[in-house]
Write a structure and sequence with these properties.
The chain is α+β, with helices and mostly antiparallel strands and 322 residues long. The chain is built from nine helices and ten strands. It has two domains: 203 residues, CheC-like (Chemotaxis protein chec, 3-Layer(aba) Sandwich); 60 residues, SpoA-like (Surface presentation of antigens (SPOA), Roll). Helix 2 runs parallel beside helix 4, helix 2 packs across helix 5 and helix 4 packs across helix 5.
């Protein structure tokens, strides 16, 4: 027997308009029109829960790869995946936007990564010592520096996405094209459905940005059974609670400090200190990294991107930490 297919509301309306006794008001203006019964529009996209679970796994990866660019620990929120026609999604996009199309085998066709241009500009500003503030008006093209950072960011996002997908289906990603005009990004036809996963990233207060990953529904159909197994084999709620607790604990901040020198002064020397006095110190070859008064590592003092930095040379074991 063939699998039973449920008709969509649009298909039922089309049938009713042709039924005997149907009112004139029920027929479409301009006469009959072609309609494809049993098409993709009538089938629910049952793999969306799997996309949501993968988005949750992508949150930590996005936080880790954005932090070095932004020089701040960003807040990343994964929004529920949704399905809509590609033409409707295109209509919502700005005239100037970063779009990267990637082959994502074994999925058919390609997927698309969309990043707000202002986010790229802010990351470049922060990367070179700024605070992520940019002027409201901007050119309709990326600078060479922005192009370079965009390419690195997009590749890292797709690399992380590939790793997450590998837990379900081994995939191989390859860049096909980059566009800044959504009209030239021919992912699928405008009337074809796409599934969209969206991440809201806030590296700095009041400066949130969005990254979207767009999948053609026809491409997801080819691996739908694998995606459904992910949903069916989902861990119990207790497991989800454990994952969320682990993520929350990972966000706890601890003040870390290092001590360059510990000079000793007599009480009389301390009482006689004046502005301009010089206290000789001897810098050790290795300095400790302290968290809550406990030594967790030792390292050497140096410079990184124009700022003083501590390079970790050795981690202290818990037993020997003091």
């Amino acid at each position: 027997m063939t699998e039973k297919t449920t008709l969509s509301g649009e298909e039922i309306s089309a049938l009713m308009s042709e039924a005997p006794g149907a009112s004139a008001g029920g027929s479409a203006a301009g006469g009959a029109r072609a309609f494809a019964f049993g098409g993709e529009g009538g089938r629910p996209m049952s793999a969306l829960p799997a996309l949501d679970r993968m988005s949750e796994r992508m949150v930590k990866r996005l936080r880790g790869l954005v932090e070095p660019f932004a020089r701040a620990k960003p807040k990343v929120v994964a929004e529920p995946a949704y399905v809509r026609n590609y033409g409707d999604w295109q209509a919502e996009q700005a005239e100037f936007v970063s779009l990267s199309l990637y082959a994502f085998k074994p999925l058919k066709g390609a997927i698309m990564l969309a990043i707000e241009p202002a986010f790229i500009s802010r990351l470049v500003d922060a990367r070179y010592g700024g605070t992520g503030d940019i002027a409201s008006g901007r050119a309709r093209e990326f600078t060479a520096t922005e192009e370079s950072l965009l390419a690195r960011l997009a590749e890292q996002v797709i690399e992380g996405l590939t790793t997450v997908w590998a837990e379900i289906v081994p995939v191989k990603a390859g860049l096909r094209a980059r566009e800044t005009n959504v009209g030239f990004a021919a992912l699928v036809r405008p009337d074809e459905p796409v599934a969209v996963t969206r991440f809201t990233i806030t590296p700095w207060p009041g400066k949130e940005a969005q990254i979207e990953i767009v999948y053609p529904v026809s491409a997801l159909r080819s691996v739908e059974q694998e995606l459904l197994r992910v949903h069916d084999e989902a861990p119990a709620p207790a497991g989800e609670w454990h994952d969320r607790l682990g993520a929350a604990v990972g966000e706890i901040r601890f003040p870390a400090r290092t001590v360059l020198a510990r000079p000793e002064l007599t009480f009389s020397e301390l009482m006689q200190l004046q502005a301009g006095d010089v206290i000789p110190v001897t810098l050790p070859s290795l300095v400790p990294l302290l968290v809550e008064g406990r030594k967790i590592a030792v390292g050497t003092i140096g410079e990184h991107d124009g700022r003083a930095a501590l390079r970790i040379e050795r981690m202290e074991t818990r037993r020997s930490a003091s």
